[in-house]
Amino acid sequence: MTKTLQSLTHLSRLTVVPPIWLFTLACALFFTVTTDNFAEIGNLTNILQQTSTIGLIALGMTVVMINGNIDLSVGAVVALAASLAVGLQSDIGTLPAVAVGLGSGIALGFLNGMIVWKTGVDAFIVTLGAMIGVRGLVFVYTQEQSFFAMDFAYSDFGMSQTLGLPTLAWVFLGFTVVMHWVMTSTVHGRNAYAVGGNREAALNAGIRVGRHMVVNFMIVGFFAALAGITLSTQMGASTPNLGREYELWTITAVVLGGTKLTGGAGSILGTLGGVLAIGILRNGMNLMQVPAFYVLVILGAILIAVLFIDRQVNRAGSEEVEA
Amino acid sequence: MTAHPAAIHSAAELDDLRRRAPLLKLDGITKTFPGVVALDDVSLEVRAGEVHALLGENGAGKSTLMKILAGNHQANRGQIHLEGEVVHFDNPMQAKEAGIVLIHQELSLVPEMSVAENIFLGALPRGMFGTVKWRVLHAVAAEILKTLGCKFSPRDKVGRLSIANRQMVEIARALVFTPKVVVFDEPTASLTDAEKVVLFEIIRGLTKKGVGVVYISHRMDEIFTLSDRLTVLRDGKVRGTLETSETSEDGVTQLMIGRSLEGRTKRAAGAFGPVALEVKGLTCGSLYHDVSFQVRKGEVVGMYGLVGAGRTEVAETLFGLRTPDAGEIRIDGEVVAIDAPPAAIARGLALVPESRKEQGLVLGMSCRDNMSMAKLSGVTGRFGFLKPRAEQAIYDEYAKTLDLRAPGPAALAVNLSGGNQQKVVIGKWLATDPEILILDEPTRGIDVGSKSEIHDLIRRLAASGLAVLVISSEMPEIMGVSDRVLALYHGRIAGDFDAETLTEDRLVQAISGL
Q1: Do B126 and A187 touch (CB under 8 A)?
Q2: Does the distance separating the beta carbons of A207 and B121 come in below 8 Å?
Q3: Radius of gyration for chain A, computed over Cα atoms and rounded to the nearest angstrom
Q4: Pick from B123, B152, B159: CB nearest A323
Q5: Rounded distance, CA A136 to CA A83, Å?
Q6: CA B221, CA B215: separation in Å to the nearest integer?
Q7: Per-residue pLDDT tens digits for B17-49
Q8: How far is A25 from B295, CA to CA, in rounded Å?
Q9: pLDDT value at residue B266
Q10: Membrane-crossing residues (chain A) (predicted)?
């Protein structure tokens, strides 16, 4: 009896659907009805592939934001990792070049985290500086040149299919599952909520807040680098301007997914919903031939509207429960 | 890690434990904060198995002492001995690992997380790959909650619990560790009587296991039912450590207050002017009900009650920060509708708020700018430009009246001592030429010298014809400064006393609902 009850609540913990999914599904339904091609398998897998770049970064960003921080340098890290992974291929081989690209993201995440921890400067400022500085490094390294992948296997990977889905979609979905597990089931994940929810209490409870934050910056650095590399496999090339404004799209997706800017609340499932919502809106409006500039206007308005509704709904539901 | 109770001792063994060397000894602890000596050579002993009550007015140093014990602050001088050995705590975790647990007065929980997660915060049971062992977590948390008699589930979100239940979660947290010393800092402030009974059971249970309990409270009845010994702090110094059974409430009060309350010049009731402020049947949801009182010109009315009794809420309503459900407010005999602070200011009301730093001051602004803030209409010229000379005039006038000791008008408010900060806030409101001045906890966190200056100031202002309403949780302050005292209990006026004939006992009874 108690056992079934326990497994039931355990299940319910996994299946709490973040409210953004209602919106995401409504959008999908809307475009299914209003356009001819939206619901085609080819288009849907296309959306998954297109969203995988922002999606991967958003996984890491969710962790950092739940933790009460933010990372604005992800767009620049996308360009750095892509340039290294493509540019070094002919010198050291494809796999080592990819490893260097990923390593650069993790290392920059470590640096961001250490600076935030040791100086106490706000993460917004530290990573804003990193965003500008790392972009500069990319230009230094590439001499403003685009690189083309000499290894065809590299660019083939970006276009390949596995079990009927684009491989990159699998990569994104796979990491989504992993990060969901990390945030719901591991001590590290739970501590991220604690630190973001009440930093003072977390310190008092003996959580090593500084180290914990550094690890999370390394996670987002890894995902930004991975996103840069997968993006360059799709293009078979890297450009020094790759990933511009990605930090903004990522934060938009994460916030749409219900993660609080102040930290302490949010979920990977919500972020997945937010990422898909943006992907579906862009794709659907494209199919409806809405001019690109209007798409931006609509997306901006939707972001504000969704968060406003969320706020109203949450306020209504947050009355005290007397046990 | 998990709660495994230490051996329960027989009565004889307990007696023996208590007679032995003290479990915990604080020796000559001194702590200074910028501008204030918070603790001056404080020594305190706690024996195993005893409840040691710690008393003192607000600001006497109790909380600071306990924060030093729990590793939140470090002493400037003095030593802590635990079981005969000198210990030193740089952070709360070290203290906790040594067996000293402080149950915080300000709740330090994560509202977005579940009860069980909060209980185990920082010590979540770990499985393979760093996963959380949810079953163990929930089972142990449920067990602890059961021993505490809590009816909520370990899975409930803390943010949705009542304040009292959150307090129980804080207590549950202490029981996860096997503590040697547990400090309760005003644990009953938000508890109902039934919950109090449970808490006292828990505390007695702890002492039977040989734990030393430090119990901080204002409430005499609790201290006399619960404690074995008590120590009184006043102005950062120990004024005495006594066996509870060998003393009386009067004796303790004497030690706490330390000075006689006589010597204040009281005036006959006839000397007051006409009624300036009258409140009739004011009601606001569950915060307060049917509150009625009058304040005459030249009169200081004190409002006394426990935290949460509705005092601040009444003041906020008068100032237009809350909308009442029923009742009327009259100023100079005229019914007024005050829906926002500007309307209140226009009617001659001024409110010196409860928390100086959050509500009273813009800390990063200069004293002069802070003081002219409520009176900007008076210092702007044509086209809305500020007139620096008029601003300076305000500063000059009130810095003098209030004897403000600031490095200059351009000094930032954040750099002043608490007493001088409060003077800036008072000056800001005096600049609006109010007829009715409301002061909410005017001397909270202020050193003794500035306290009496502010008390004198309040008397002077009243003598100059202002109607003054003072809200305070400090009995000596209320009794020392007021002509009349209103006692609030659970949002109702439980007594309206003439200060001349008022005794502390009657006041305590009124605010406790007796």
Answers
A1: yes
A2: yes
A3: 20
A4: B152
A5: 13
A6: 13
A7: 666 678 899 999 998 877 667 888 999 999 988
A8: 62
A9: 52
A10: 20-39, 46-66, 72-88, 95-117, 123-142, 163-183, 213-232, 253-280, 292-309
Q: Same CATH fold, B275-348+435-514 and B11-257?
A: yes
Chain A residue whose CA is closest to B71? A204
HEC profile for B29-55? EEEEECCEEEEEEEEEEECCCCEEEEE
Q: Give pLDDT tens digits for A286-316.
A: 999 999 899 999 999 998 998 888 777 665 4
Contact A264 B117 (CB under 8 A): no
Amino acid (one-letter) located at B108:
S
Instruction: Identify the structural domains of chain A with CATH numbers, from first to last.
Output: 48-256+263-307 (1.10.3470)
| Res. B270 pLDDT band, cuts 50 70 90 | low
Q: Which of B254, B303, B224 is nearest to B474 (CA)?
A: B303
CB-nearest partner of B165 from A6, A203, A323: A323
| Total length of chain B | 514
Residues of chain A in contact with residue B165, where contact means CB-CB under 8 angstroms, are: 323
DSSP string, B74-86: --SEEEEEETTEE
CATH number listed for the domain at residues B275-348+435-514: 3.40.50.300
- Cβ(B510)–Cβ(B489) under 8 Å? yes
What ipTM score was computed for the predicted complex, to two decimals? Answer: 0.72
How many residues in chain A?
323
CA pair distance B441, B355, nearest whole angstrom: 8
Instruction: Please tell me the class of the B11-257 domain.
Output: alpha beta
DSSP collapsed to 3 states, chain A: CHHHHHHHHHHHHHHCCCCHHHHHHHHHHHHHHHCCCCCCHHHHHHHHHHHHHHHHHHHHHHHHHHCCCCCCCHHHHHHHHHHHHHHCHHHHCHHHHHHHHHHHHHHHHHHHHHHHHHHCCCHHHHHHHHHHHHHHHHHHHHCCCCEECCCHHHHHHHHCEECCEEHHHHHHHHHHHHHHHHHHHEHHHHHHHHHHHCHHHHHHCCCCHHHHHHHHHHHHHHHHHHHHHHHHHHHCEECCCCCCCHHHHHHHHHHHCCCCCCCCCCCHHHHHHHHHHHHHHHHHHHHCCCCHHHHHHHHHHHHHHHHHHHHHHHHHHCCCCCC
